[in-house]
Design brief:
By secondary structure, this protein is mostly helical. It contains nine helices and two strands. It has two domains: 71 residues, Orthogonal Bundle (Arc Repressor Mutant, subunit A); 145 residues, GntR ligand-binding domain-like (Four Helix Bundle (Hemerythrin (Met), subunit A), Up-down Bundle). It is 76% helix and 4% strand. Helix 1 packs across helix 3 and helix 6 packs antiparallel against helix 7.
């Protein structure tokens, strides 16, 4: 029994470390994740490494390619937009559950994250504070399974969207949305929080699609000339 708990803890630790490195960009899209090398790195057998990679694959962060094995997964604009639609459903539901349960400690935690967000200097830092804010907003729903789903979908989209969003909107406009959401939460208006959150996420989707269209136009022009 003790051996099973230790193995479980080890594969979870490996998964969390690899997830953080993928989300931060330390492991870019296409990076090969060799089981033997990871086992050596984490001083583990291949069994917990294999399980960690399996779980990351289920989250969409890892894919298996022919003749290459596990690699850090890429994602198309269409796939990201699908996940953003799912985020709307999950996060807005969580917000309606969370707002009635919020206390001053929750508001203070969100405001501290937003302060760090404003002070962040790099896109990876910005993305991490954004992720933490969305999780802090959902946490008072007190539904661990729902929070885990939100975390996975936040992680799967943020690492792709923040570079595009930094070009399209900068940092100020999303941050204004965040503060409006906290203000509505302080007022205890769960429906308003959900409405603001839906617009906030769907604006990300629209900006991402517009960025992709602009890139397509630039590519077309470069091919014609």
């Amino acid at each position: 029994m003790a051996a099973r708990k230790e193995a479980k803890a080890l594969h979870e630790a490996i998964r969390e470390q690899l997830r953080q490195e993928i989300v931060s960009g330390a492991l870019p899209t296409g990076t090969q994740l060799r089981q033997d090398a990871l086992a050596t790195r984490f001083n583990a057998s291949r069994i917990p490494v294999r399980e960690a990679l399996r779980q990351l694959e289920a989250e969409g962060l890892v894919a298996h390619q022919l003749n290459r094995g596990a690699v850090v997964a890429g994602m198309s604009v269409e796939q990201i937009c699908e996940l953003l639609d799912i985020r709307v459903a999950l996060e807005c539901h969580a917000a309606r559950l969370a707002v009635p349960q919020m206390v001053e400690r929750d508001f203070a935690a969100m405001e501290a994250i937003l302060k760090a967000y404003s002070e962040s200097q790099s896109i990876p830092e910005w993305a991490e504070h954004n992720r933490r804010f969305h999780l802090a907003l959902s946490a008072p729903a007190n539904n661990k399974r729902l929070l885990r789903l939100i975390e996975e979908f936040c992680l799967n989209t943020d690492r792709y969207t923040h570079v595009a969003m930094s070009r399209a909107t900068g940092k100020d406009r999303p941050q204004e949305d965040h503060y409006r959401i906290v203000e509505a939460a302080r007022a205890g208006d769960a429906d308003q929080v959900a409405a603001l959150l839906e617009v906030h996420i769907l604006d990300t989707k629209k900006e991402l699609m517009a960025s992709a269209r602009a890139q397509d136009r630039e590519t077309g022009l470069s091919l014609r000339y």
